[in-house]
Design a protein that fits this description.
- Its EC number is 2.1.1.-.
- S-adenosyl-L-methionine binds at residues 78, 83, 129-130, 146.
- Pfam families: GidB (PF02527).
- This is Ribosomal RNA small subunit methyltransferase G.
- InterPro entries: rRNA_ssu_MeTfrase_G, SAM-dependent_MTases_sf.
- The protein has a domain at 67-219: Rossmann fold (3-Layer(aba) Sandwich), CATH 3.40.50.150.
- The radius of gyration is 16 Å and the shape is globular.
- 41% of the residues lie in helices and 23% in strands.
- The model has no long low-confidence stretch (mean pLDDT 96).
- By secondary structure, it is an alpha/beta fold.
- A seven-stranded mixed β-sheet has the order 3-2-1-4-5-7-6, sandwiched between helices.
- The protein binds S-adenosylmethionine (SAM).
Amino acid sequence: MDQEAKDLLMRGATQLGVELTSAQLGKFALFAAELRKWNHKINLTAITTEREIALKHFVDSLSLCRAVGKGGRLLDLGSGGGFPVIPFAILHPKSEAVSVDAVEKKIIFQRHVGRLLGLSYFQAIHARGEELAGRFAGHFDWVVSRAFSDIPTFVHMALPLLAPSGTIIAMKGQAGREEAETSGPALEILGVEIRQVMEFPLPFSGDKRSLIVMGRKNAS
Ligand SMILES: C[S@@+](CC[C@H](N)C(=O)[O-])C[C@H]1O[C@@H](n2cnc3c(N)ncnc32)[C@H](O)[C@@H]1O
């Protein structure tokens, strides 16, 4: 990453309440370099400039920390090129971070990045989210997704994998609150409640983002 992209990432993270160490910044720079290199061969992302990667992938992913302050066992469903799970793993290197995607080449890329960055508690699994319940039933403190599916589909997939008092977070854009409201009846059937809708502008771009924070009704 060039200096401008590094500065944007540092300052963007600070605006989200995250102070990155120089070691963490170095890991983000390595991740960006591999993302750009691999993107020439396999289609991982349409976001390709260093500036865009810093803002639209890294800072955007770090906005998850507004809800997930302290780490814990985290699952990212439909993680693609590793978002938001790899930024989370860089920030919380001692937290178990599991990444799942149905497309194998994306998982091979993520495993490569995990090894390169020394993320010992990170694992990337090639599977469909629906197939994980046997292996990880009730396991995760946090099940998250970004740009994955509609809220009820995501929650339906996340529930069997969630610890009894765990939290589900859908990372959404401007229309997040409206989608959360229209999902109410479907969530009711699943026994899930919306605990909070966090809305905020992304640093620099001002683009609207929202975190839909949910959990089991009987757990709160
Ligand atoms: C639009 S991409 C978003 C990737 C990443 N979360 C991001 O924000 O950059 C959605 C990803 O979900 C994956 N996916 C779709 N359905 C899935 C399923 N049932 N189980 C696992 N992965 C799935 C796709 O392969 C794709 O990589």
